[in-house]
Amino acid sequence: KLPVVAIIGRPNVGKSTLFNRLVGKKLALVDDRPGVTRDRREGDATLVGVDFRVIDTAGYEDEDAATLPGRMRQQTEAAVAQADVALFMIDARVGVVPLEEEISRWLRGSDTPIVLVANKAEGKAGEAGILESLALGYGDPVQLSAEHGEGMGDLFEALLPYI
Ligand code: GDP
Ligand code: MG
C-alpha cells in the first residue's frame, strides 16, 4: 500500500496546481459518484523514485459561502485522517487569513503530521506572508511555486520522513 499525502487548505491557494504537477498524466482515480468528483481527487505520484498517493481536497465551485466551512472541515478531516502526512497549503502572497486559523484548530485533534506549504512564493511577493505563517506554529513553511515548479526539492525533503 502506497503512503498517502493529503493536500489541504482553503480554496484558491494552489492545491490542484500542485496535485496536477505531482500526479501529471498518472491520474489514477477520479471518483464519479455525484458530489464526490468535485470534492476530491486521488492519484499516484513519484518524486525522486519514491511512489506515493496524493489526495487533492478540491472543489467548492458552486459553494454557498454559508455552507463552505462545514463541508471543508468534513473533507479536510477525512483526508487528513487517512493520510500519512498532510500538506497544509497557504498563499504566501496573501498571508494567513482567519479561515486558515480555523483550519489549524481543526488539525489539532489529529495525529497526522502536518507540513506547512507557502505556495505562490516565486519572486519576493511572498516574504511577508511567509513570516506571518510562522505564527501558525508549524515551523518554517516549505516555500513553493506549484505553478512554476519551484521548491519541489524542498517539498520532497519535508515529505521524506513520512513517505
Ligand atoms: P485550489 O483551489 O487550492 O485547488 O487552487 P488552484 O490550484 O485551482 O489554483 C488557484 C489559482 O492560483 C489558479 O489561478 C492558479 O493558476 C494559481 N496558482 C497556483 N499555484 C500558483 C503559484 O505557484 N504561483 C502563482 N502566482 N499562482 C499560482
Ligand atoms: Mg482545487
Automatic annotation (TrEMBL):
Q: What is the official name of this protein in its record?
A: GTPase Der
Record-stated family: Belongs to the TRAFAC class TrmE-Era-EngA-EngB-Septin-like GTPase superfamily. EngA (Der) GTPase family.
- Whichever gene encodes this chain, its name is der
**Binding of GTP 1, residues:** 9-16, 56-60, 119-122
The species is Sphingomonas aliaeris
Q: What does this protein do?
A: GTPase that plays an essential role in the late steps of ribosome biogenesis.
In the complete protein, the residues contained here run 3 to 165 of 455
- Subunit relationships: Associates with the 50S ribosomal subunit.
Q: Which domain of life is it from?
A: Bacteria
Q: Which residues form the EngA-type G domain?
A: 3-163
